[in-house]
């Protein structure tokens, strides 16, 4: 364990699957029975903001009541019990890492419990419904709030910080992500290029497999706690 000083964990929808949240591409590219093009692109939001608001409003109660599983909790344990700095880059819009008590979390695709004012940039944190009538608490403009979700066609958040983390990490773990969307799919390549050991945790070996040194196949709720236990044990020896 002392071998590692800077650990970066990239998480995707698969880490939350055992908490009961559907993954993105589990059912023919549909997300909770909606076409991605209708709910997760900037064009869709410009075309029909009410429809897009409804989709995210409907997801909120399910996500709010979901609980972290053993995979999320094992990352918190790693943060608390290892001497390494552990950063979590998540593509998930849920808040299960926070609920598990983790820190140093970068939501590169945004968060379902936030919306952003397209007029002044104010970020409103709320689990309440947002709609085309919502007034921005800062600039008082009506109808300019957008879910703070990074849609296809928009830039990812925190990328400067993420780039630094990837260049400096000595251990990179990718958990529950299909790795088909760039630039996230290339994070492993950057980490590997700068010398990190790289592991993939997934139900299957994904097509994005060239830069992983190790593939741990199985449910993250089982494989990740085991892996963390072993890392922490090595530290004790
Ligand atoms: P994805 O749905 O494209 O891929 C999920 C991956 O997780 C698959 O490769 C699958 O084999 C794997 N997986 C499923 N169950 C697993 C388990 N129990 N253990 C380990 N691996 C498991 O997800 P993605 O790559 O994260 O891209 C989807 C995007 O959609 C996200 O970036 C996010 O913006 C959004 N999304 C978020 C949530 C959430 O916040 N929980 C849920 C669905 C979609």
Characterization of this structure:
The protein has 237 residues and is an alpha/beta fold. Helix content is 32%, strand content 21%. It contains 8 helices and 11 strands. It starts with 5 loop residues before the first strand and ends with a helix. The longest helix is centred in the first third of the chain and has 17 residues, at 49-65. The mean pLDDT is 93. The chain has a 6-stranded parallel sheet with strand order 5-4-1-9-10-11, with helices on both faces. The protein folds into 2 domains: 1-21 and 68-109 and 156-237, TPP-binding domain (Rossmann fold, 3-Layer(aba) Sandwich); 22-65 and 111-149, SIR2/SIRT2 'Small Domain'. Helix 6 (159-168) packs parallel to helix 7. Bound molecules: nicotinamide-adenine-dinucleotide (NAD). Nicotinamide-adenine-dinucleotide binds next to strand 10.
């Amino acid at each position: 364990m002392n071998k590692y000083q800077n650990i970066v964990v990239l998480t995707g929808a698969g880490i939350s699957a055992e908490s009961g949240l559907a993954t993105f591409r589990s059912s023919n590219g549909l997300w909770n029975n909606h076409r991605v093009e209708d709910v997760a692109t900037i064009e869709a939001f410009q075309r029909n903001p009410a429809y897009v608001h409804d989709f995210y409003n409907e997801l909120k109660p399910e996500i709010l009541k979901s609980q972290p599983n053993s995979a999320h909790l094992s990352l918190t344990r790693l943060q608390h019990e290892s001497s390494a700095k552990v950063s979590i880059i998540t593509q998930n819009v849920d808040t299960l890492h926070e609920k598990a008590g983790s820190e140093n979390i970068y939501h590169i695709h945004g968060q379902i419990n936030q919306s952003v004012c397209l007029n002044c940039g104010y970020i409103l944190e709320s689990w309440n419904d947002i709609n085309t009538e919502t007034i921005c608490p800062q600039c008082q403009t009506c109808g300019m709030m957008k879910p703070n979700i990074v849609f296809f066609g928009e830039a990812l958040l925190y990328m400067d910080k993420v780039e630094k983390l990837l260049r400096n990490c000595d251990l990179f773990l990718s958990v529950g992500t299909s790795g088909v969307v760039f630039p996230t799919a290339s994070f492993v390549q950057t980490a590997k290029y700068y010398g990190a050991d790289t592991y993939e945790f997934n139900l299957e070996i994904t097509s994005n497999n060239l830069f992983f040194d190790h593939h741990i196949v199985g449910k993250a709720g089982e494989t990740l706690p085991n892996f963390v236990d072993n890392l922490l044990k090595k530290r004790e020896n």
